[in-house]
Amino acid sequence: MLKIGVIGCGAIGKEHIKRLMYLVPGAQVVACADFYPEAAQKTAAMFQVPTVYQTGEELIGASEVEAVVITSADDSHFAYTLAAVKLGKQVFCEKPLALTASECEEIIAEEVKQGRRLVQVGFMRRYDPGYAKMKEIIDSGELGAPLMIHACHRNVFQSEGFQTEMGITNVAIHELDICRWLLGDEYKKAQVLKVKQSGRSTKGYDNPQIVLLETEDGSRIDVELQVCDAYGYDIQCQVVCEKGTINLPDPASVIMRAEARCSTELLTDWAKRFIEAYDIELADWVNAVEKGELTGPSSWDGYAACVAADALNRSRGTETFLPIEMIEKPGLYQ
Question: What does the pLDDT look like over 48-65, one tens digit per residue?
């Protein structure tokens, strides 16, 4: 059994603990911690986690913890991940890997120093059956080369304290990873645009925004980003290829016919939309750790998304595409 410690006992932390305890073979959650100790205590009681640590650092250093799952606040990911890698421990870190490209570079440097991959980043969309099938079709070449991606990310709600820049670093970060993965290409330029604002969005941050990207081989990507006040949680993606298009399927839903109307229920919760992807993702991570061969999204993938996010946020208000400049890719991630 892989003995796992979980840092962060909020909504996604609880979901991951439940998966690891009851759904993922070969996993055992032996400890948890949270910035708010009472949250960790309640979570431990809920799932019978044997040990609660006062801090994430104590959990990382605990001898019984073989691997660490990080589901805490975004600004804590870097320090916890780096601390675990320095001890040679396996890490599953929810997105983003860090808030800046320079922090990601520190993690990469330490992982290279260790001489092996130790980090997987929680870009769960790669494990969604719909996206996986799209990738399979693109890679087969049957539709020719991919030319463009049209995508949208529409959300219902954001917590207090949300800021415009977080629309990129916390929300659109998924599109930054999945589009790069689908195309198998690095980004070259990036720009974010402020468009006509929704009258429903009066919370002080830009909503909606448009994300524009260009890859090294000239493919173009546009992403409509509504971080709040949309009609539901709606993720759309279309890849335009030389010989046809590929569309991400909507989640399965029954069609109701009543009162002269035909309707389909829409989701409002990201956890339900990608529940299967999360299940597959964590099972794959535990299995890969046991084999000593991580194959999921790496520190480099977390870095690439962060570099693009940095460029996008710098471009805001400039009406200019900014170059995306990355360090040389270490052989560890080839």
Answer: 999 999 999 999 999 999
